[in-house]
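hey can u check if this looks right to u? its 389 residues, i copy pasted from the old doc so theres a chance i mangled smth
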Amino acid sequence: MAKVVNICLYGPVTDGWSYQDNLLPKYQKENGNDVTVITSKWIWNSDGKLVKTDEQDYYNEYGIHTIRLDIKGDKALTSKFKRFHGLYSQLEKEKPDIIFVHCFQFLDIDEVIRYAKKHVDVIIYVDNHCDLSNSATNWISKNILHKIVWKSKAQKLNPYVKKFYGVIPARVDFLAEMYDLPREKIELLEMGADDEKVQNAADKNKISDLRKKYAIKDSDFLIVSGGKNDHAKQQTLLLMEAVKELSHKFPVKLIVFGSVSNELKDEVNKLSDGTIVNYIGWIQPDDSYDFFSAADLVVFPGRHSVFWEQVVGIGKPLVVKYWDGTTHVQVNGNAEFLIKDSAEEIKNKISGILDNNKYKYNQMLVAATGKAKQRFSYREIALRSLGQQ
C-alpha cells in the first residue's frame, strides 16, 4: 500500500460529483492505497455558483482524507496567479510515497518541486486537461501564459516527474508541443466510468423499468444522446431529424437528455414527438448511467464531452463526431465516426450499423463489451495512474 497525495489546485473539487478529480482518488483508494486529496476551499453549489466552504480537514464520502486550503490575499479561484496557504507544510505532514498532480498550471507547483528536491524518493505523476480547444485560445494566453509561464514551470518540474499524462490524445500533444516535454515521458491516461455506477445501472430490472417508462419495446432499437445543447452543439437537432427518417425503415427510438439553450428550445420541442423522438430535459448527472445502460447505441454528433468516455466504460457501442485528438474512444471497433454535420450522414451511418440483420452492430457490441470497457474503467485507470499495473 502506498501513501498517495492528490493535489487538485487548478480548479474546484466538489464532493459528490463524478469528475476525474473525484473518481481517480476514489479508485486509487479502492485499489488499496492510503489516499489524501489537497484542494481549495472553493466548490460549486447547487445553483452552479462558486462558493467558499468552511470545510478544512475531513474525510469525504469515499473515506478519503480531504484537506482544503485558503487562497492567499484576495485573489479569486479563477486568478491564474493565485497562491495557497500551507501546501508545503501539508505535504510534510502527509509524507507521501506518491504525489499525483491534477493539472500543474498553478504557481504553487513550486512547492511540489521544493518538496521533491528535499524528498528524493517521492514519485510524482502529473496529468493535463489543457488542449488548443480550451486553452491558449488567444495570443496572450498562448505566447505568454503557456509558452513562457507554464512552460517554465513544466521544465522545472520535469526532472522530478516519472510520467506526464494527457487525458485525451490532444492533451498528450499539448504537453509535448506547448511545453517541450519529452515524448517518452508522456502517456495517455483516459477519463472513464465509475465502476460502481456501471454495475448498479446494469441491473436488468432497472433497465426494463426505464425502457417501459418511455414506451420502449424489447424489439425497439434505442438510441440515446445527452449533454449540453447550445449553438456549439446544434448537431443534436440533426440526430433527431435522422432518427425520424430512420423510423420508416427500422424500429428505432431516440431519447435525448440535457440542457437546451433558449435559441434551440422551439426546434427541439418541435422535433420531440414523445414516441419516436423524446427529449426529456435535464437529468441528474448520475442518472446518465441508467439511460446509457438502457441504450442499444449511443450517439454524440457534436463536440467531445466526458460522456464519451463514460459510455465506453459502460460498454456500449457509440457513434461520435470525428475530432482530431479525440479518437481514443475507438477501441477494436466499438465506435464509428461522423465527418460532416448532416442529418443524411447520421441516417446513413446508423442505417449501415443496423443493415444485414445488425451485422455491423453486433461486431461493435462485442468490441464495446470487451477491451474497450475494461480500459475505460476508473478502477483500471487508477491502477495505471500510479504505475501499479
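The mean pLDDT is 94.
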